[in-house]
Amino acid sequence: MVDVDGVELNAEDKDILAHPKVGGLILFSRNFTDIEQLCQLTRAIKQINPKLLIAVDHEGGRVQRFRQDFSAIPAMGKIYANFAQTCDQDAALQKSQQFAQAMGYLMAREVQASGIDISFAPVLDLDDVSDVIGDRGFHKDPAMVSALGDAFIVGMHQAGMKATGKHFPGHGSVKEDSHVAMPIDKRSKQQIFAKDIQSFEQLNDKGMLDALMPAHVIYPNVDQHPVGFSRFWLQDILRQQMGFDGVLFSDDLSMQGATGVGGFVERCEAAATAGCDMLLVCNNRQGAIEAIEQASINASDPMCVQRIQRMLNATPRPWSSLGDDAVWQSCRQQLQAFNAMV
Fold first, then answer.
1. In total, how many domains does the chain have?
2. Which CATH number do you get for residue 101?
């Protein structure tokens, strides 16, 4: 999965997107001016290959790539915190779940109406010591994360979007930001499994997770490799012990947390060998080209291809259809009421 620099495709972009090793594209704020332009861009991408998976990080709060024309989804950590100010615990949870489901629908419906297949959401990390996670996470209690994450995914699925839980097995309990450092979490396996991994396990057991994105974090008392490059985490734990059969997206292999493995070719090969189905190389065009041309990966593995194709939007609806969507209108009203409370 690669990226592009502009608001329309240039000749090099088109050549890269047509390459058989390229299976998707992730969009950023720099690729957006307004909804008309975005829809033109996504149509141009699908004209090259309708099976290219188009993705975006559109979680809400500070991680929402598109602003103009889109609903401003609140940070997930603010949902329960807001209702808890005026309700008892049980009522706050009930209202939070209802609102989280509405926000899952609202986000997914608008993102897909722009021609994008998936948003990499929800964040299932705990809102603990990590600044880069913080209020991107629903709560610091794993049970609350499971309850609210479940509701958010119900809304996503209702809109027709597949869900990607991140960042397995949990980035919230380590201070360093893997965009700029190599986070190391020295806790024991027992501590991680008793806390951070709980929401991933519970939602996987319920069949809610269509995909997962591993953390660029090393847990040295469990395995020496960052999770996204670890066969132990991705094969032994996820595939075998947890029985997860969805897509495994690497986190961005340009991040600092991935550099210890080597160059872009080595990173892609290591992530693929560990078990990632799709490898994200963002914000480094030369690195992406090197990986596409030189990395020894099987881009036609039938199981991998089948898993990724399940993530595509099966029922595309245009942006103009939103006005006739009663559920979307209701979700917008709930958002307005929530904002009035804050």
1. 1
2. 3.20.20.300
Question: Would 5 be classed as within a structural domain?
Answer: no
User: b/e per residue, 20-40, with b = 16+ CB within 10 A?
Assistant: ebbbbbbbeeebbeebeebbe
pLDDT confidence bin for 172, thresholds 50/70/90: confident
180-to-5, 80, 169, 228 alpha-carbon distances in Å: 21, 30, 20, 16
Q: What pLDDT score does 255 carry?
A: 74
Q: Which two structure tokens, joined as six digits, stand for 247?
A: 């897509």
Task: Average the pLDDT over each of 82-86, 104-108, 179-183 and give the range with the smallest value.
Answer: 179-183
Provide CB contacts within 8 A for 157, sequence distance 6+: 163, 208
Task: List residues with catalytic annotation.
Answer: 179, 251
- Using the predicted structure, report yes or no on whether residue 19 has a pLDDT greater than 70: yes
Question: 118 is in which domain, residue-wise?
Answer: 11-341
Name the CA dihedral angle for 329, 207, 269, 56, rounded to a multiple of 10 degrees.
Answer: 0
Position 118 in a domain: yes
CB contact at 8 A, 106 and 76: no
Place of tokens 């141009």: 44
Q: Which helix (H) or strand (E) holds 27?
A: strand 24-27
Q: What is the pLDDT of residue 134?
A: 74
Q: Is residue 1 part of a domain?
A: no
How far, in Å, CA of 214 to CA of 229, rounded? Answer: 9
